[in-house]
Amino acid sequence: MKEHHDYCIMKPQMCKYCELMIPQLDNQFENHIAYCGSKTRECEICGTVLKQRELKGHMESGVCEIVLEEKQEALKSRVSADLQRFR
Question: CB of 40 within 8 A of CB of 52?
Fold first, then answer.
């Protein structure tokens, strides 16, 4: 029975993106993972909008810090330009 439980095609698996339990029957799980991974989501750290399947790699790669630095520099430039206009 344990072997059947481990390999049963009706055994649900958890989606790593939305945490729903999806049965493996008739490629339902693979289809759901492809669909769910293609949805876009905003990075909680830097605000970049990415596909869910790319989000983990984005956060682990250190790109967030670069994006945040670029956004901060752009903001400083805008503030500086605005201050120059009012002087």
Answer: yes
State the Cα–Cα distance between residues 66 and 59, nearest whole angstrom. 11
Residue 61 tokens, joined? 């790669």
Output the pLDDT for position 32. Answer: 94
Identify the residue whose tokens are 């983990």: 56
Could you tell me how far CA 66 lies from the centroid of its own chain? Answer: 17
Query: Which parts of 1-87 fold into alpha helices (H)?
Result: 2-7, 28-38, 52-61, 63-85
Whole-angstrom distance, CA of residue 40 vs CA of residue 43: 10
Element (DSSP H or E) covering residue 40: strand 40-42
For 4-37, how does the pLDDT look when each residue is reduced to its tens digit (9 = 90+)?
666 776 788 899 999 999 988 888 899 999 999 9
Give the residue among 35, 33, 1 at the shortest CA–CA distance from 24: 33
